């Protein structure tokens, strides 16, 4: 896939290797009908286009939008001046170079705040969602630990939240790891039962980065507010993609990632509510920047990029939401109608459409990923997918180990095209069929044998 940038617009081109088998014998048909001739001509044009693109550069299609997104060229346009001639330190208060950088940062802060209906003073810039999550979880847990020694999270959170919780455990706090149901959603009654006067923080992500499940954030926020428990949500996968209002949803802390919303890498933000005030211990000390919560020189170009990405996300929201939903439906329908024994992981309704996690029974996920080398896909979180262990998220929803091992995550975004989705469907169905034909288990299933009734013996 290529993103060709010209005059601040993006043209996305996809390519594929088209098998010559599709075209064999077409020219040998006697007196082809007008329709056949038209189809033949169209296929030849497509084949020529694919061959031309392959000569230019072998690049896979990109369908891994949960790992990262390409930077929107409009974001880069706004960043460039602060990478060249507007290079002042925003904390230099004695000259114009510092003033113009400071103004750019405050303008960006307003854009980020507007996207989630917050006050600009409630936005703290960080290096990304991982740092935001660390500050929120460790900061609140440590500040209130003398009076409140209990925090809550779920078993399917991002690894940075789970690891931060384990740090708090090592410091003497009690952590409740809520299980999720088979659809990936928490049980609200179970959450309510573990909220106590000792609880300082509840951290539950808005959209899961592996299976796309969307938790009932408003209901969770309402429960936490009633029990006087601060509510933090990791919204890295949902800011700019789903409507968010921190006041209506009773959210007290919210983590944002720049590179998940077509902005630059290395920048994020943390929303921290002022009324009622959330207090926390900083995990990084220094010059006292960002309200003494996150010390260090604020990187003006990156902050400007995050602000621009948030502004564009707000402008493009309706169009993005509609396109992504249509493409996701096209992908799921295209694969499941041609491939039996395909499972959509997570709740089919309460989800972000752009994250499609499918398990292909009787196929090893790693083998399928290798076969689909001309499409950039993932078997789970980019932070942990290097491990050969089955996804802890899929294990948490009760997936069998073989199903967990056969999962592939398809990530659809703003620049994904219909042609790319169709190509992905074609290649996925083809390779799943081929890999299953090599599997003795698949052969047994085709013969009507229930594999669960077989007692396997070891020799």
From TrEMBL:
Record keywords: Iron, Iron-sulfur, Metal-binding, Pyridoxal phosphate, Transferase
Span list, region Disordered: 24-43
Entry EC no(s): 2.8.1.7
GO molecular function: cysteine desulfurase activity; iron-sulfur cluster binding; metal ion binding; pyridoxal phosphate binding
Gene3D superfamilies given in the database record: Aspartate Aminotransferase, domain 1, Type I PLP-dependent aspartate aminotransferase-like (Major domain)
Cofactor names: pyridoxal 5'-phosphate
Compositionally biased region (Basic and acidic residues): 32-43
PROSITE patterns in the cross-refs: AA_TRANSFER_CLASS_5
Taxonomic superkingdom: Eukaryota
NCBIfam families: IscS, PRK14012.1
Protein name: cysteine desulfurase
Species of the source: Adineta steineri
């Amino acid at each position: 896939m290529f993103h060709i940038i010209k005059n601040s617009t993006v043209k996305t081109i996809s390519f594929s290797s088209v098998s010559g088998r599709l075209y064999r014998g077409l020219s040998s048909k006697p007196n082809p009908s007008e329709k056949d001739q038209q189809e033949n001509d169209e296929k030849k044009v497509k084949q020529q286009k694919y061959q031309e693109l392959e000569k230019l550069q072998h690049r896979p299609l990109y369908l891994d939008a949960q790992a990262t997104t390409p930077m929107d060229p409009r974001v880069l346009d706004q960043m460039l001046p602060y990478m060249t001639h507007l290079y002042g330190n925003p904390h230099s208060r004695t000259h114009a170079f510092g003033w113009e950088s400071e103004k750019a940062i405050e303008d960006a802060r307003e854009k980020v705040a507007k996207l989630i209906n917050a006050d600009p003073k409630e936005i703290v810039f960080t290096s990304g969602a991982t740092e935001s999550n660390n500050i929120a979880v460790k900061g609140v847990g440590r500040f209130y630990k003398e009076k409140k020694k209990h925090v809550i999270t779920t078993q399917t959170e991002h690894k940075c939240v789970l690891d931060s919780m384990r740090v708090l455990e090592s410091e003497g706090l009690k952590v409740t790891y809520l299980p999720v149901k088979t659809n990936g959603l928490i049980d609200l009654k179970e959450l309510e039962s573990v909220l106590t006067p000792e609880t300082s923080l509840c951290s539950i992500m808005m959209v899961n980065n592996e299976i796309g499940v969307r938790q009932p954030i408003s209901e969770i926020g309402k429960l936490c507010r009633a029990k006087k428990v601060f509510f933090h949500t990791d919204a890295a996968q949902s800011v700019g993609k789903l409507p968010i209002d921190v006041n209506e949803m009773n959210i007290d802390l919210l983590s944002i990632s720049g590179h998940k919303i077509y902005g630059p890498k290395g920048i994020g933000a943390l929303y921290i509510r002022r009324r009622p005030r959330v207090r926390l211990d900083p995990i990084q000390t220094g010059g006292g920047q960002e309200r003494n919560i996150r010390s260090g020189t604020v990187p003006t170009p990156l902050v400007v990029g995050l602000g621009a990405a948030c502004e564009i996300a707000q402008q493009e929201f309706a169009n993005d939401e509609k396109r992504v939903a249509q493409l996701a439906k096209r992908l799921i329908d295209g694969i499941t109608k041609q491939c039996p024994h395909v499972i959509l992981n997570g709740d089919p309704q309460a989800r972000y459409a752009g994250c499609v996690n499918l398990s292909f029974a009787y196929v090893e996920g790693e083998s399928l990923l290798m076969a689909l080398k001309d499409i950039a896909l993932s078997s789970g979180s980019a932070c942990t997918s290097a491990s050969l262990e089955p996804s802890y998220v899929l294990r948490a929803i009760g997936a069998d180990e073989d199903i967990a091992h056969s999962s592939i995550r398809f990530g659809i975004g703003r620049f994904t095209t219909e042609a790319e989705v169709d190509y992905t469907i074609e290649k996925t169905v083809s390779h799943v069929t081929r890999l299953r034909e090599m599997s003795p288990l698949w052969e047994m299933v085709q013969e009507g044998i229930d594999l669960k009734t077989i007692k396997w013996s070891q020799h």
